[in-house]
Structure formats: structure tokens, C-alpha cells
Amino acid sequence: IASTNAEKLAAASQRLGGAATALLDITDEAAVAAFFTHAGMFDHIVSTAGDWGEGGRGAFAELDMKKAEDLFRVRLWGSAILAKHGAARLAAGGSLTFTGGMSAYRPAQGSVMATAMAGSLAHLTLGLAKELAPLRVNAVLPGGVRTEIWDGLPEAMRAAESARFERQLIPRIAEPDEVAEAYLYLMKAG
Predict the structure, then answer these.
(1) How far apart are CA 182 and CA 41, in angstroms?
(2) Residue 117 and residue 172: Cα distance in Å, rounded?
(3) pTM for the full predicted model
(4) Residue 84 CB-half CA count within 13 A
(5) What SS3 state is found at 173?
(6) Cα separation of 17 and 42, whole Å?
(7) Residue 18 Rama label (left phi>0; alpha psi -120 to 50; beta)
(8) Would the CA dihedral through 153, 157, 158, 164 be positive or negative?
(9) Over the chain, what is the mean pLDDT?
(10) How far apart, in whole angstroms, are the C-alpha atoms of residue 182 and residue 172?
(11) Region 146-153: what's the mean pLDDT?
(12) CA distance readout (Å), 79 to 16, 76, 124, 149, 182
């Protein structure tokens, strides 16, 4: 597993029984290229990297466009960099799976740039699926998921999001193990 945060890597490795880790910023193309040069072959590559940042929410007319531009760095450009250098290290029958969000297809008021970012990742996935075939390229687009990020949100924001989730067909936030099933399916479905 890879991350830009050493503490999160150590905690995740421990939860997973000692998984190998690497400090890696997928927005740094030189670092990603160097990583894949030395990392060997992979059966599957999954990216859950994301940085919603400050520029993704709020009234569009009031957005700081520089912060909004930064919103695309990890999920869109990082995914493209990961695909560019990781695809050559995927074994036959391998797959590359990205993480986007349902906001690509179900935007909320005040989320124009978050919606655009999620939609751009969905379309990157479509283009790469064609370009990299027979390698499989997919994206999982979950709604809200109860992760450490969720737990770190201010209480008022969690309350507002919970109220929004109550209007969904399944009226609650998803659990990580539920969403993990989608990634596992995509890796197994040759």
C-alpha cells in the first residue's frame, strides 16, 4: 500500500497484518515512474487516493478557482500518472481500478467542482479502458463512506451529510467493507 502519510501507512499495514508499504505521491510523475521501475509486477492496482481540498464545495460564483483547480491534482491527474506508469507493470489479466464518486452523476447543490472532478475521473476511466485493453480499467463511484475522513469532519458537516444520506434509497452512509466488495469483484471478474 502506498500513501503520502507515513502514520496512515503504518496503521494500515498493522491492520492488514504487515502489508508492504511505500511513501508515494501519485501527483509526482517522477516518483511514480521510479516506484514502478523498482516495484516489480502487479496483478491489480487500486487507487483510493483523493484530496477533496477546500475548493470543491460552496457557491460556484464565490469559488476560489485556484483552489478548485487543485481539487483535480490527486484524483484526476494522479490517476492518469498512476495509469501511465502502472499499466506497464500489470500482469496479463490484471486490472487498474480508480475511485471516484457518485457526485459525477448525482450532484448536490454547492458542489460544481467536486462534480466536475468526479465526472472527469469517470471519463478518464472510459478512455483508459479502451486504450489499455485487454487490461481492465474500472472505477468505483461510491457515495458517502464511513472512513477516517468522515470521522474527522466537523460535527455540523457530518450532520448535514447524514441528513442528505437519509434521502437516498438506502438511507445511510456506506461502510468500508461494503464498498470493498466492489473493488474485489472488479479484480476477480476477468
Answers:
(1) 23
(2) 24
(3) 0.89
(4) 15
(5) coil
(6) 19
(7) left
(8) negative
(9) 90
(10) 18
(11) 82
(12) 24, 5, 9, 20, 18
